[in-house]
Amino acid sequence: MMQNPNELPSGVLLIDKAPDMTSHDVVAIARRQLNMKKIGHCGTLDPMATGLLMLVINRATKIQDLLMSEDKTYVGTLTLGATTSTQDKEGEIQEEKEVPGFTEEDLKAAFDKYTGNFEQIPPMVSAIKKDGVPLYKLARKGQVVKRDPRPVFVTNYQIDRVALPEVDFTVDCSKGFYVRTYAHDIGQTLGCGSHLSSLRRTRSGKFTLERAVKVEDLKVASREELMNSFISLAEISLMRGA
Is the dihedral of CA 136, 36, 51, 155 positive or negative? Predict the structure, then answer.
């Protein structure tokens, strides 16, 4: 029997994504647990990344673009002294250099360069399409194509811990911002190279991890339990109007 989409619940389900899985894996689990097909996600997280993934369910898919356009907060670690093919720890090391004994002031000067409005060249390993083909598919074939710089902005950052070669940081940034490119570019500015070694999204717009369901709980939750965790469309319009 066909389910009438108007009778099905709609809303946003916040998930705390586990590492080593794709954003699409999370959608597949949610579809199974909710027994619903019309589920999408806002803002892909790389397999290595954890944290906030917003699932839009049923009629909430209509506001997907709206939700994706909001600014985000990430907590990450960059590792100095090595650049990689993907700009993160999943890639192959391309170049290694010695890491000088940077002070926090040295690091701050490099981070400061990437504050406010600036441009990023998206990584080759990304979902941006060139002539209809995602760049990461071309990258797998060893192809490198010219990517146009994109305007992005960082409203705020914080250096949380320095234990060279590692630097922990928090960054508040615009949509379309690549944190691994940020880590890579900071390494270039410092002259010793760098890659992103951990990443966690903690906020998107007004949504935080506070109401997020962990993936291990998503796998075993009943339909009712998950529906009780939905943020309704009415609540979302109130949040956005605030």
Answer: positive
- φ, ψ of residue 50 in degrees (nearest 5): -125, 175
- Which pair of tokens denotes residue 193? 């190279």
Question: Per residue in 38-97, pLDDT tens?
Answer: 999 998 999 999 999 999 999 999 999 999 999 999 999 999 999 999 999 999 999 999
Distance CA 137, CA 141 (A): 7
Query: C-alpha angle 204/205/209, rounded to 5°?
Result: 45
Catalytic positions: 46
- What H or E segment, with its residue span, contains residue 72? strand 72-80
Cα dihedral 41, 45, 48, 50, rounded to 10, equals -80
- Cβ atoms of 35 and 233 within 8 Å: the answer is no
CA 125/CA 142 separation, integer angstroms: 11
Whether the pLDDT of residue 4 is over 60: the answer is no
Domains annotated on the chain, with CATH: 11-69+205-241 (3.30.2350.10), 72-203 (3.30.2350.10)
- The answer to whether the predicted template modeling score (pTM) of the entire model surpasses 0.85 is yes
Radius of gyration of the chain (CA): 19
